[in-house]
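User: Round two. Same drill as before: sequence, then structure, for each protein.

Assistant: Same drill it is. First protein:
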Amino acid sequence: MEQFKDINSWGAVVTDSDLDQDKSFEQYKILISSAEKISSLRATANNYLLSVNSLLVAVHTLGVSLQPNASWQVALPLAGLIICLSWWTLIQSYRNVNTAKFKVIHNLESNLPSQPYKDEWKLMSKRNIPLSHVEQWIPAVFAGLYLGLLIIA
């Protein structure tokens, strides 16, 4: 039998299970906020690394036209390859963090009246390729470009 804890401002009795559900919902909100922050950081990192790679390619292209056969024609693509490897690893890390967060979110949703993220996950997994699978191709394409630049250098 549930123990009565309190009476809320509307005069309703608050039980232990009500308090547990309130705690679960607060944890749920914190996790959702955390997942949104991770996604924002991920987008910022992707934009930054896309800009860095675009700059390296632009500098390389400009440099080839101004000073052919210079040693930096090898150094820039090598640096680009290292950046691409780091970027690809970062994408994998963000994917793992978000996967773990959403497993916890789905678990918490099982204690709530509805499971919107779990339902969305089911619907999206049937129709879409996950964003992290698509975004990992961007550093791979840049890496291919850098390999090509190394071959012709």
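Second protein:
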Amino acid sequence: MKFQLIYRIINFTAPSKPPNISQIYYTSSTSIRVHWEPIPQEYVHGRLLGYQVEYRRIEAGLLNTWKTITVGAKDHAATITGLKKYGAYVFQVGAFTRKGGGTLSKAYMIRTDEDGWYLNYLLIDFVFFFFFAFQPARLYCVILFLFCMYFEF
């Protein structure tokens, strides 16, 4: 009994179970927030030092390197800023002890926001309608422009 207790205290390893990402969403056109559930203590195997959020941008034809944000053991969320507008990113979260990092969570892909492009189109619609729709010769051009803009021709 005494030997088993000493063995368990000395034999620390990295966490054997990854945290589960519970929420991931964009907070702006250049930032994403990630929330995760903490690892149950029986899977930590020592003193939990913190979590690492790993992410990389996905681009056609390019292989981007993984970037890492480190937060404390009591944190269960992180906001990643400085991302590209309307960029696609892959996120994973892992925990670490003094023996190293454990396995990473399931990967999630998300895009940042588009930076209000829809509101810009509405403003353009209003301006064109107000200034040009009342002139019969230009009404056809306005309708054609709006059709092309909405259906992305």
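Residues 117-123 have pLDDT under 50 and may be disordered.

User: Perfect.
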